[in-house]
Structures are given as C-alpha cells and as structure tokens.
Amino acid sequence: MENRKLQVWLPLLFSVIMVAGMVIGYKLREESGIKNFFTINNKTSFQEVLDLVSLKYVDQVATDSLSNNAINDVLHHLDPHSVFIPASDLDYVNDDLRGNFSGIGVEFQMFYDTVNVLNVLPDGPSERAGLQVGDKFLKVNDSISIAGKHLQPNDIRRLLRGENGSIVKLTVMRDRQIIPFNVSRGTIPVPSVDASYMITPSTGFIHINKFAESTYREFMRSLENLQAQHMQKLILDLRGNGGGLLGVAVNIADEFLDGNKLIVYTKGSHVPKYEYKCKRDGLFETGDLVLLVDEGSASASEVLTGALQDWDRATIVGRRTFGKGLVQEQFQLTDGSALRLTVARYYSPLGRNIQKSYKQGYEKYEEEVMNRFHDGEVLKGDTTKKSGPAFKTPKGRIVYGGGGITPDIYVPFDTASMGNEVMKLYLKGTLSNFIYTYFIEHKEQFNQYKKAADIVAFKAGEDEWNALKKFAVRDSIDLNKVSEKDKSLIIKRIPSLVARQIWRYEGYYEVMNRSDDFVQKALQVLNEKDIQK
User: Fold this and answer.
1) Which of 192, 196, 214, 299 is catalytic?
2) Is 96 one of the annotated active-site residues of the chain?
3) Does 299 participate in catalysis according to the annotation?
4) What pTM does this model have?
5) How far, in Å, CA of 469 to CA of 244, rounded?
6) pLDDT (tens digit, 9 = 90+) per residue, 292-315?
C-alpha cells in the first residue's frame, strides 16, 4: 500500500522540484546580469540576422529566398560555377543530367497567355491519350485553370510532371471544342543526341547537346548505326553544348583514341590528382574526324575537344570555346537542397587548364562571351585571344591553355551585323512562334512531306516574309527596317525551322546543315584530307 502511494506522489514531487529549479535558475540569471546564463546558443551571426529580419523587419520577407540569394553571393566570391540549388528546383536540375523525367511527353510554349502544344512525343503518354500538336491547355486536374494566366515555364512543368503512373486530367481546346483528357504519366527521355545521320555517302554527322547519364548510350547507338551505313568520316557537333558529366565525355573520347592514352586529369587542394585514361578499343579510332565548337561549348565539351586536339586526333573547326576548366561535385543538404561545389580543376593531356579568368568578379565573367561579339573576336579569327602558355602536340602544332580552346580552323559569326529589329525577332521568340502558327495554318501542305529531306521542295519567299512581318507587329517589331541581307538570311532559315517543328532537331539539322557555314567548312576539311591521301 505504501509503495502504491509512493508511485502516485513521486511524479508530482519531481514536477515540483523541476519547477522550483527553473524558478531559482531564472532568479540567478536576473541577479547575475549575464544574458546567456543557462542558455545554449550555437547560431551564427548570419542566422541571427535572418531571424531578426523575419521577426522585426517592416515588411513581410521570404527569408528562404533571402537565404538562398545570400548563399549564392558567397559562392560567387569563390568561383562562378559553385552554386546552391534550392530543394524546389533540385528534381528539375537533376532530371537534365539523368536524361529522363516522369511526365506526359509534350513540348509546349506560352502564346499570348495560353499554353500551346508544340510537339507530342511519338508513342509517349500524351500521344497514346490522343493529344495533338496545336492543342491548347485550359485546365490541369479540373480545378487548376492555366488559360489567361502569365505562368512561367517551370510553373507549368510542375503541374504536368509527377509520379510515374499517376494520372493528370487535362482540359484542352481543339478547333474551338473543349475536350477532356486523362494522361498517365510515364518516363520521358530527354535526348542528348539531337541528330545523327549520313550527311554524305561516306560522312556521318552527330550533334550532342549535353553530357548526361544517357548520352554515352545514345552516342554509341548513333555511331554503330552510322557505321552500319558505311561511315568512314565523322563530323561531331558540340556547338552550344554546355557540358555535364565528366565521365561521359571521357567515355566518348575513349571511342576515338587508341591505346591507354591520357584523356584528362583533375586535381584540387583537397582532391588528389586523378588521371582518366583510355580503357578499351574504340569504335572510331582511325577515321577522319572534325569537331565543331563555339563560345557555347563548355566544360565536358572542352574536355573532349582538348583531348582530341592534344593528341592530333581531330580537326577543331569553329570559334573559341567558353573556357570552363573547373570540376563540380554535388552535395546533398539536410533540407533537400544541394550544393554544387568546385572541388578540382581539370587539365588536358598536355597539361592545359582552359579556365578563363574570374578575377574581375562574377558579373564581368558572365559578360565575357558577349564581349567577344562587341570587340569583334567572333568576326575575325586573327583577333581570337590566345591567353595562357603554349603547348606543342605530338605533330608539332601549337595549342594554348587559358580562356577556352582555340579552334584549328576559324569560322566567323555569320549574322554579327544583325540589326535591332532582327535581334528582337530572336530574343522575343517571335520567329519560333511564327513558325508554329504558320505550320498550324498550313498543316495539309506540310503533311505531304514524309521526311526532312523532302522539305527542300518548300521554297520560302515573299509570301512567308509578308506573313512574318504582319505577325511581328504584335510584338512591336517593324521588319520594314530590316536590311536585304538580314531578310535573305531569315527567309533561308524558315524551311529548317519548319523541319524542326515537324521532325524536331533531327529534321532541323538535316535541313539547316545544307547551308550551315560550320558544316560546310567541315566538309571542305574532310575533302582536303581525302585529296592529301
């Protein structure tokens, strides 16, 4: 009985003692005048400032956004490529490197506050559900209206993407009729190889837009397919390829280099030197090879280009590359966000690091490529900057480190004299929007073309130019001010842009390459090699 009473009163007794202790502690804190007596405070000054802004600032502030911006400001003082990725953006960023995502399989574009379907992935979820090019999205999941709202592309992607196998309900307008669709989300590939075809009976062409997890598999399928068509020479187009995964670029380089040649090596203050060498017999170790590059070719693209140039394996045609010689590693943070931190520099087989200077700060670094257009570098090859030390290849050619990779053969920027109205045509997306609407209005005409090569029968001229002029007025663009040269260039591009609308980038390159300066120069180089043999 006494034990039972003790069990009842003990918790109460402990509570009284605890409260008494708290009161005594509080009194001691007051009498001592020490603010942090019996307190633990591990907050940094940075966190304290954010807390005070959140609690005391005159206006409501999104402190998460403020914190993210502050982190990136700190990182920009380190180098231009270390970056903080918020948790809300991480899936989208990682999808690009994975080479696929879970969605409905459409390309879309916002036209005057309405989401239009530009392309439907063949045999994808949307095609199986019955969606067509030209459909306009009104609602998502019945309750979310997206028509008449100026949404950002990322907002629309978040609505359309989701768990594999989940259903998204769409309300669509087609030919003034409102139609409901249920689309089961599936795995949507994001191709790295935009185009792969035989540009001549003996020459293949491959364009790679990035180096993702799926790129090497795509590249090998393309290479094997072209070799089955008796390819002897190859043009590999890396223009606009901003890079990606270093290991993927190394694997592709291995297909062109023999033996155990060094492809690239990396090292940093906290990362030991690591050499990437050839490990296998390559599929294309001896055929003539030309690489196309420009100021948009960066990072992993420069790893591949530098290796092939250092070993005299390929002729590099184009313009000076971007100049990114830093390696990032991604670290997952506790709140679901991530940090891509520069951990090493990479060096070509000859020891070149082609990272351009960032001593003048982040903004100047970002402006450097645009300055190439202003200072005339993209117009004349002899003004291309050769910064950094000189190196000699096995065949005695001189190549340079620092500031990107200088091509062996220079191709100037064809439209550098472009006027303001034409610049607006591209920057505002007016030309691509016109192509889409023109295609929708002339579907029957274009349905007669069964493959991209057939579209050469389509001759753009004054009718298309006048239609474009009328269309451009909506975006406050006056094409009456355009020079005859610029007018001719735009008209020449229309068939290739229509081909992209119908057959995506495979069709675009197949048509555009017929007159592309880079490609024509590459073909000339390959023909000269044949003559020399």
Assistant:
1) 299
2) no
3) yes
4) 0.86
5) 39
6) 999 999 999 999 999 999 999 999
